[in-house]
């Protein structure tokens, strides 16, 4: 007959196994949510890339005074991640007590690309550690070194130009006769209570533009996407429904609507699963109490339901606590 200690160890192992399963399930849910977040971000990226040429040219002239004579898109893809392994990276303290990073690379041959590799390293290291970095390259080659060790002034990154849409008056966006720019007025500077008024001006302006009339559904869907940045989804949906050109497809084809609908279906399924689980647990609890009141041993009850003795004891203890005292 198994000892009490053996049963205790079994209970602890089973409980640990359950905890591990729950952790795996939680991790899976988090990963799924992260993937979904990335997918949603890609929706916005696609929209702005689709509108790029028609959008950035007037915006740059309007906000930065940069008038373009001509431009040509470059289709080459830049790597999203740089899988680089550093030779040596140290955190050091100088004689003055200053803490810095020391980065050392060993190079066996001349390379005119070394300066740009070091520039990449500097960006990656500083992004991670937020500390100043001293870079050294130890050249091991036999031939005379010809590497450039200093970037030309124009190649040094010192910052970027920032254009904040929420600081631009909606009238500026509305003054441009391009639907790709007009819809951006929704992201402009205005009070919350003016949202419906701004939306009305956007829709009025859009209907005056030939390009909009060629594909109204495209710009309505983009307007719906932008509305999520200002939490105006419901407001804009109701407003669009009053438009003569409105069709249910405009809302139903909207990618975020689809995601929301799918979320609702999944939430409904989850609630259904939770309800079934609760009902099953209720039946299990009642059966355990019935067995207990008939004098069946805890060990036998546990084996009958394929659960731990600890679980059986918990059910019985809860039942005793809730039972009216005689």
Strand order of the largest sheet: 1-2-3
The percent of residues in helical segments reads: 55-70%
Helix-strand pattern: HEEHEHHHHHHHHHH
- What's the assembly state of these chains? single chain
Explain what the structure shows.
By secondary structure, the chain is mainly alpha-helical. Among the domains are: 88-153, no CATH class; 165-256; 257-322, no CATH class. 58% of the residues lie in helices and 7% in strands. It contains twelve helices and three strands; from the N terminus they run H-E-E-H-E-H-H-H-H-H-H-H-H-H-H. Strands 1-2-3 form a three-stranded mixed sheet, covered by helices on one side. The longest helix has 61 residues, at 4-64. The two termini are 36 Å apart. 12% of the residues are buried.
Keywords:
3-stranded mixed beta sheet; mainly alpha; single chain; 3 strands; 326 residues; flat
Give the secondary structure arrangement, pairings included.
Layout: H1 4-64, E1 88-93, E2 99-107, H2 114-129, E3 133-139, H3 170-174, H4 179-182, H5 195-206, H6 210-214, H7 216-227, H8 233-241, H9 248-252, H10 255-293, H11 298-305, H12 309-322
Parallel strand pairs: 2-3
Antiparallel strand pairs: 1-2
Helix pairs in contact: 5-8, 7-8, 10-12, 11-12
